[in-house]
Automatic annotation (TrEMBL):
Residues that span the membrane, as ranges: 59-78
Entry protein name: Fe2OG dioxygenase domain-containing protein
Boundaries of every Fe2OG dioxygenase domain copy: 215-321
Region listing for Disordered, in residue ranges: 1-48
Amino acid sequence: MISDLKQRNSATKSALKQSTSESSKKNVSDVSDEKKTANSKEDGKKKFRPMGIKKEDQLWSRAVLMTGVLVIVIVMKWRKTNEITWVSQQETVAKAKQPLICSTAFHEEINKFEGCAIKQCGRFVMDGLFQEDQLNTLLGIFKKGLQFGHSSGGASILDLHSGALSKGERFINIFSNPETKNIWSESELASYINAKETIRQAVIENFGLQLGAIHLTSPTFFSRMTDNPAKTVHDEYWHPHVDKETYETFHFTSLLYLSDYGSEFQGGRFVFVDGDNMNRTVEPRKGRVSMFTSGGENLHYVEKVTGGTRYAITIAFTCDAQHAIPDPHVRN
Ligand SMILES: O=C(O)CCC(=O)C(=O)O
Ligand SMILES: [Fe+2]
């Protein structure tokens, strides 16, 4: 270290000598002007350059620092933008498929049920399972119910099985009021049951289950989402969750969308949060059905709706016959 400093001192001295002998060759006024400039430059260097660090070393350390900052920025950007649109609103998909390894707990549980023993978990998205008029009938059923109540926050639900309907900050039972207990016709209920059955068959086929292995379970419900500020926790639909943890009886979750992302509402895309630090989104499209195993392999959330109205039905299936729920029926 000391010998290094000595070397630098002698190098500085010889550089000074050289510059003095060169300047003596020039005329006197030039020399005095240059000297002034050189002196002030030298002063500047003395003031601001850290003692004992060569200019080349400074440049190198700056370059290393800048490269480090650049690498951090690139890595952060890469981590942030790790999101892909798995199924977009514009495309019509016969079937989009993504196999997944089941979470350990889910795999252990589902294998207890004979007809449900699956090797692989996963997710499917299918368009074209329903005709426009069937979808409008389903939407009509929901809107009829919404005349009698809706949430004061951003999420309203109607459960045609239990009769639960959002009203203000609470829920009412639409079947407990004689005026509303039979607002849906037999043919409307038949459309609802048919839609459920179409989806049940698709889940059985896609996941390779035995016929009759899965049953409708609770909660199965219509949902309406808007950008109204949340009033209660029931309005906060945007939290990442695993359905099996939120609703214990679920083994397969299906979602039937009744409105279009982009044109009828903004925000509100469905997001799978995957372990590979990748988010895969499904953009809702009227008639689109999303089906997935309800375990930890399918952590998900719904983005906040930023405008318009989003309509969907969450239809849940269980492998446990003890948790099956009956179809809705006309009440006397
Ligand atoms: O409506 C959706 O797209 C998803 C709703 C959901 O995650 C749920 O009901 O558990
Ligand atoms: Fe969910």
